[in-house]
Structure formats: structure tokens, C-alpha cells
Amino acid sequence: MSELVQTLRKVWTDVQANPRLRWGLVLIAAVVLVEGGLRWSDAIAQQQQALGKLQADVAALRSGLKNDAALTDALEASRQTAALVDARLWTVSSEAVGQAKMKDWLTEVVKRNIADQYVINLSVSRELGKREVAGAAVATSAQADAPGAGVREFRANVSFRLTPRALEGVLLEVEGGEPFCAVESLLVKGQERRVEMTVRVLMRVHPPEASHG
Question: pTM of the prediction?
């Protein structure tokens, strides 16, 4: 131990006596400090990068959870809408029965709202999702396989004498009545005191199964 102390004292004496050696030791110490600082800075930068990646992963995970919740809500809303539509969708055994039912219902609506001088003209129904091209019904393969297959659109042109009560009452009953119905077009002729509208009702045509035996 005493030899180590004597050696250190001799080194310290040499350093004090030799300015060049003293400045050399100072320079070496500075280099060591700078290198240590650089390594520490690199370590901090790597940690910051890792933290940034972790934060991005957490944000993506949270976003995915939110999207899953939104998708679940959308599916539930779709189910509720489908149930509502199905509850209001009339089911008839044939097109003729559907047209008769539509005319009876529209007649009750206009009479109940004192819409006199009325005329109801029925149009030929068509399958939901089909479009008319040169007088022929055309459907895409996707539409043919859609869940709405078997549902038909029944239309009628309704005309009656214009009064505020009749117009308001008929519109309210058609849009919010029993069947799945909507007003496609509405024309109010002020000079002629007439109302003309096109009404569409969706119905499911389900022919009765033939009995065997």
C-alpha cells in the first residue's frame, strides 16, 4: 500500500513539474468526457425512438378498438333497420292481391282525409332492384342474389282536389302509415286546385305453397 502511495506521489510531482504532461492529462480527460457524453446522447436518442414507436403502436391499437366498436354499432343499427322494414313490409300471395290491397289502402287514406274528387291509377309492379331498359326489366347478378329478392315495388298515381287539410293528411298517412311506403313525386296545381302524387309501396310477394295429395 505504501508503495502505491509513493508511486502516486511521484506521478503527481512529475505532473506538477511538467506542464506539457499536465495539459496532456487534461486533454485525455476531456476526450473521455466527450466520448461518454456522445454515447449517453445516442442511448437517449434510441430510447426516444423506442418510446415513439411504442406510442404509435398504442395509438394504432386504440384506433382499431374504436373502429371495432363503430363497426359493431353499425351492424346493430343495420339489424334494427332490417327488423323495422320487415315489420312494415306487407306480404301478399300475388301481384294482383298486392295491387288490390294497395288500392284499398289508398282509398281509405284519401277518404279519411276528405280528399274528394280523387282518382287512383295503379302501375305494373316490378321486382325491387331492377331497372327498366327499353321496356324490359333488367337486373344485375348481384341484385338477383340480394336479400331483397322477392320484394316488389308497387306504384300508384293519386290525384285529388286540393285543400290544405287533404294535402297534409294524405302526406302524413302515406309517409308514416302502416306499409313501407313513400311519396316519389308530388305536384300541386294551384290554378286547377288539384294534387297529383306518385306513391310507392314495397311488398313481399310470397305465393302459397302448393298442397300435395
Answer: 0.54
